[in-house]
């Protein structure tokens, strides 16, 4: 995701989540994902906001928490979950703008591409 979209997104995510979970900067350094949160000792993860993409033309797509967070570091003493949307490092200048919805965000979605009419369709499903 381009930095000018990514940075405000993660800043808002951290703002909404910091009252329930602390950042795990060690996991961020190890995985390259950011932000990461320590969810140790939590039986039911809650307090993470809805992530909604707003597309040109007025379509909205809500991404479930399990499609934008992943448990990346878990042992018997701690568990960490990280945001799976990524961006280029700040020092990389790209020709963007571009946002790629990867396989993690698109789990359990059918996607239809109408190239002739320049439209994108999506429908949440329980894929098996």
What does this structure look like?
- With 128 residues, this protein is α+β, with helices and mostly antiparallel strands.
- The protein has a domain at 3-42 and 49-89.
- Helices cover 17% and strands 28% of the residues.
- The protein contains two helices and eight strands.
- It has a four-stranded antiparallel sheet with strand order 1-2-6-5, with helices on one face.
- The relative contact order is 0.19.
- The mean pLDDT is 83.
- This is Peptidase A1 domain-containing protein.
- Pfam families: TAXi_C.
- One of its GO terms (molecular function) is peptidase activity.
- Keywords: Hydrolase, Protease.
What multimeric state do the chains show?
Answer: single chain
Outline: globular
Low-confidence stretches: none
Estimated radius of gyration: 16 Å
Strand residue content: 25-35%
* Number of DSSP-assigned strands: 8
Tell me the span between the first and last alpha carbons: 28 Å
Q: N-to-C SSE series? A: HEHEEEEEEE
How many strands, which pairing sense, and closed or not: the largest β-sheet?
4 strands, antiparallel
* Class from helix and strand fractions: alpha+beta
Enumerate the strands of the largest sheet in spatial order, edge to edge or round the barrel.
1-2-6-5
Number of helices: 2
Average pLDDT works out at 83
């Amino acid at each position: 995701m381009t930095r000018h979209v990514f940075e405000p997104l993660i800043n808002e995510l951290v703002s909404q989540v910091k009252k329930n979970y602390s950042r795990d900067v060690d996991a961020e350094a190890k995985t390259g994902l950011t932000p990461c949160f320590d969810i140790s000792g939590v039986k039911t993860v809650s307090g993470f906001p809805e992530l909604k993409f707003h597309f040109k033309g007025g379509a909205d797509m809500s991404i479930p928490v399990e499609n934008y967070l992943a448990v990346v570091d878990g042992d018997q003493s701690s568990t960490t979950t990280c945001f799976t949307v990524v961006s280029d490092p700040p020092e990389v200048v790209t020709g963007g703008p571009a946002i790629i919805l990867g396989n993690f965000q698109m789990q359990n979605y059918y996607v239809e591409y109408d190239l002739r009419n320049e439209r994108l369709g999506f429908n949440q499903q329980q894929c098996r």
